Amino acid sequence: MLKNKTALITGSTSGIGLAYARALAEQGANVVINGLGDADEIEATRAAVENDFGVRCVYSAANMLKADEIATMVANAENEFDSLDILINNAGIQHVAPVEEFPIEKWDAIIAINLSSAFHAIRAAVPGMKKRGWGRIINTASAHALVASPYKSAYVAAKHGIAGLTKTVALEVAEHGVTVNAICPGYVWTPLVEAQIPATMEARNMTEEQVKQDVLLKAQPTKEFVTVEQVAALAVFLCSDAASPMTGTVLPMDGGWTAQ
Q1: Catalytic residue among 20, 59, 155, 187
Q2: Exposed, middle or buried, 41 (CB in 10 Å: 0-12/13-18/19+)?
Q3: CB-CB contact of 228 with 188 (8 Å)
Q4: For the domain that residue 143 is a member of, what is the CATH number?
Q5: 219 lies in some domain
Q6: CA-CA distance, 36 to 235, in Å (whole number)?
Q7: How far is it, in rounded angstroms, from Cα 170 to Cα 193?
Q8: What residue ranges are annotated as transmembrane (predicted)?
Q9: Domains in the chain: how many in total?
Q10: What Rg value do the Cα atoms of the chain yield, rounded?
Q11: Does 187 participate in catalysis according to the annotation?
């Protein structure tokens, strides 16, 4: 479906981002991955995408805190593959604290990585997409783009900002064959989530199952985690011709969380 297309996914060396990269590669797209991690592990991840799906995969170490590096990453992707057709903004970090105690440097970093990096990447990618008359921009938002939780002021503000950015850019490029949508997952089962469980078990004197059901999945009526593969499958659909009328949408994938 995506043969001869090129996709750039930020924050894609693990978790949801890597699932995006592999799902798009499976559909024939060449991919640019980006993110943090051990150099040898990143190279193994990159090589696996190429070997498993017979596409090209390159890695960019662009820092999501730096606008110039983000713009260069987009330009390099266009030069390497002659086009950048799909942009998925997925990079994100989190910090939890009451607003009056929230560290200023954490606020600045979360807004920069979770929101501003998406703006910088979109700003750099849109001219080429408009020129070619086709493009797909997908922003990983969150259930927190639609509702709030306490102690997450920066994250919730950034994700609400992503929702607004998605709608605004969608209107600007609507006549150019470019769609812009946001996926809003609830709790997704990733290595990062799994790693939080032992500390929560100890802190709250709970079993693993209690932590999953009564803490992590408390807000999700299905009481089931979203999987990275499910999120990636929605992204693949949004890249398809069948989804071409869908733009400016903010799509919950949250087990009923935001229906409450």
Answers
A1: 155
A2: exposed
A3: yes
A4: 3.40.50.720
A5: no
A6: 22
A7: 31
A8: none
A9: 1
A10: 18
A11: no
